[in-house]
Write a structure and sequence with these properties.
The complex is a heterodimer of chains A (143) and B (130).
Chain A: E1 5-12, H1 21-32, H2 37-58, E2 60-67, E3 71-78, H3 86-89, H4 99-102, H5 111-117, E4 121-127, E5 131-139
Antiparallel strand pairs in A: 1-2, 2-3, 3-5, 4-5
Helix pairs in contact in A: 1-2, 2-5
Chain B: H1 3-9, E1 13-16, E2 27-30, H2 34-40, E3 46-49, H3 54-62, E4 67-70, H4 78-86, E5 90-93, H5 98-107, E6 111-112, H6 120-126
Parallel strand pairs in B: 2-3, 2-6, 3-4, 4-5
Antiparallel strand pairs in B: 1-5
Classes of the chains: A alpha+beta (143), B alpha/beta (130).
C-alpha cells in the first residue's frame, strides 16, 4: 500500500441524529484495511467526537481520511464560528454547548480533550468567524 | 457473566440480539453522558443508560461494546432498536432504575469498567465471574 488512500465524507450539520455516520463508515473501512483494532478504536472515538462538535457548533462540514502505509490522518474542516480560546476549550469540563445538547449525552466539555487523548498528534487551526480545521494524526508504526 | 444472566438479574426484556445472549461480558458502565463513556471506559463491556437516542448506539459501536441496557423503564423507539440490530448490538430494557441496576450487577460480581489506570484489562479478566 504505497499510494495514499483518500475518503471523503460530508458531515450533515442539520441533524444531530446523523452525527457519527462518517465515523461509523470510517471504522468499517479501517477494519477492511486491517488496521490494528486499538488504532481503529482511537480513530473512531476521536473522529466521532469531532463530528459531534461539527454538528453542535458549526452546522457540519467535511471529514477527510488519508491513509498511507504508516500514517492515518483525519481532517475535520468546518466553516463554523471558530474557537475563541483553544487553551480553554482543551480543558476537560469546559463547554460552550447549549443545554439541549447536554441532554443528548454530549456537551460536557470532553470533546476536544478526548480527541487529543485518542490521537498521536492533534493540530487545531481556528479563526473566529471563519472556521476550524482539526487534523488528527496516527503513526501506525508507533502502535 | 453471560448477557443472558445480565438480562435475568435485571429482569430485562431483550429487544434485539437474542442470538448473542451467550456472549460473555466482563465489566459494565452506567452513564447518561456519552462523552464520559468515550473518555473513560477501558474494557469493552456493557453500557447501562437512561439516555435514549441513536448516539448511545453509535457510542457503543465506537467503543466496540456489544450490549446496552436501557434503564428506568424507558423504551427506545423502533428506529434505535433497528439500528442496533443492523450493527449487532444487543439491546436490553429494564424497569429498574440506574442505581439498582448497577447495584444488582455489581453484587452479582460484574466489575466496573471506568477505572482509568494502566494494565487493568488483564486484572478484569482475572476477576471474571461465571
Amino acid at each position: 500500500m504505497s499510494e495514499t488512500l483518500h475518503y471523503h465524507f460530508d458531515v450533515d450539520g442539520a441533524s444531530f441524529a446523523n452525527a457519527g455516520r462518517a465515523s461509523v463508515e470510517t471504522k468499517k473501512l479501517l477494519r477492511q484495511l486491517g488496521v490494528p483494532p486499538e488504532v481503529i478504536r482511537s480513530i473512531s472515538v476521536a473522529m466521532y467526537e469531532g463530528e459531534i462538535n461539527m454538528v453542535i457548533h458549526a452546522h457540519g462540514g467535511d471529514a477527510d481520511v488519508y491513509i498511507t502505509e504508516d500514517t492515518i490522518i483525519i481532517i475535520l474542516k468546518d466553516v463554523g464560528p471558530g474557537i475563541r480560546n483553544v487553551e480553554e476549550a482543551m480543558k476537560e469540563g469546559f463547554s460552550t454547548a447549549p443545554e439541549n445538547i447536554r441532554a443528548l449525552g454530549f456537551g460536557a466539555g470532553m470533546g476536544l480533550p478526548n480527541m487529543k487523548r485518542y490521537s498521536d498528534e492533534m493540530h487545531i487551526d481556528t479563526k473566529v468567524g471563519v472556521g476550524t480545521t482539526i487534523e488528527l494524526w496516527y503513526h501506525l508504526n508507533k502502535h | 457473566m453471560k448477557i443472558s444472566q445480565v438480562a435475568e438479574i435485571l429482569e430485562a426484556q431483550v429487544l434485539t440480539g437474542e442470538d448473542k445472549l451467550d456472549l460473555e461480558v466482563h465489566s459494565a458502565c452506567g452513564s447518561d453522558m456519552m462523552s464520559d463513556v468515550l473518555a473513560y471506559v477501558k474494557d469493552q463491556g456493557i453500557l447501562l443508560s437512561g439516555l435514549i437516542n441513536v448516539q448511545v448506539i453509535r457510542t457503543l459501536l465506537m467503543m466496540d461494546m456489544n450490549c446496552v441496557v436501557f434503564v428506568r423503564g424507558k423504551m427506545p423507539p423502533a428506529g434505535i432498536v433497528d439500528f442496533a440490530e443492523e450493527n449487532g448490538v444487543v439491546v436490553l430494557q429494564t424497569e429498574l432504575p440506574m442505581f439498582e441496576s448497577c447495584g444488582r450487577l455489581y453484587a452479582a460480581g460484574l466489575g466496573g469498567s471506568n477505572i482509568p489506570a494502566a494494565g487493568r484489562a488483564e486484572e478484569a479478566d482475572g476477576t471474571e465471574n461465571e
